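Let us practice reading a record.
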Amino acid sequence: MVREHIDALRAGMRRRGALEVLAPAIDRAVTLDKSRRDTIQAVEERKAARNAVSQQVGQRKRAGESADDLQQQSRALGDEIARLDRELAETERELSSILLELPNVTLDSVPGGGEESNVVVRTWGQPREGVRVEPHWEVGARLGLIDFERGAKISGSGFIVFRGAGARLVRSLMNLMLDVHTREHGYEEIWVPVVVNRASMIGTAQLPKFEEDMYALKDEDAFLIPTAEVPLTNLYRDEILPESELPKAMTAYSPCFRREAGAAGKDTRGLLRVHEFDKVELVRYATPETSGQQLELLTAHAEKILQLLQLPYRVVQLASGDTGFASAQTYDLEVFASGVGKWLEVSSCSNFTDFQARRANIRYKPADGGKPRFVHTLNGSGLAFPRIIAALLEHHQQPDGAIVVPEALRGYLGAERLT
């Protein structure tokens, strides 16, 4: 992009509302890229000159002639090559650092502007409005499902304890989601580590941009995962897949850990913003030609869970300025929580095009025998539990204070009502 499509890169940053901030970095990247190529050429020229001198040295020695002047010239060229190599390494480090801080370019179909330009694509179900509903933190505590106080005592603010039927509800949601995604939607179920290395975090673009939001392990260059997207996407880092394996669909349950360093004071009550939460993640690899269709498919898979849970929701296409750092296009799924009286994001379904694949070096070999190409990666929550539980406790709340369990969940939970 910096070398061949600089105008498109600047236009993409302008649509994000970030060009003014990023323009100096982009200009510096252009300069560094040219410097890098010039230095590489200079190194090659000097290596060629040194090889030529070495041949002359050999010829003189075979002829019994002195080659001291040529050997001195060869040493000078070697010193020059070493200096240029140091310059090249420093240029490449600076260039790489800048490129890792530049966000993806959103697709042309994504509207420009910020959050105010987001578009509601479709809705499902009827939000429960105008009825007095107990907020989830109150009904969860009253029914003995959630223990906020002891969660804070043993771990700190933003950590939750689920008890009894509440704990079974968490396990039931995991089983329902994994069963639907594997049996009906064709995903391969994978159990992933919750600790990943720095290369994995860079590959999916959590680092270096969002390092302050991550839980790092002391004395190790490793991190607790903020989402199963990280280990799932990186499973094939530095590998080349045959095109016959695409599209590849993977799903995993995992706990997720986020410090939310930039979210102080936002939605601190109940389950709306916590530091550890459970989630089922969906990840897909696709060819560049099919990734747009794959995003629609992945989004429909996440929507299916909301429909089974009988939760009213809407699908929102995010504008460029509200689209995540690594994403080229994102749909947010939002459920309406009656007790809170607001729409809550429970899933972001995104097409990253080749942004993550370039960082993680994930490629595929075309069936026609062409050279390897970068895959397009996609992911979405299918779904995240805390806000789903909040919406369940509020939307399905009855006048007597009990919670009606959606039919699809009853077999997993072993109950029709939570009382």
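A brief commentary: The chain is about 40% helix and 20% strand.
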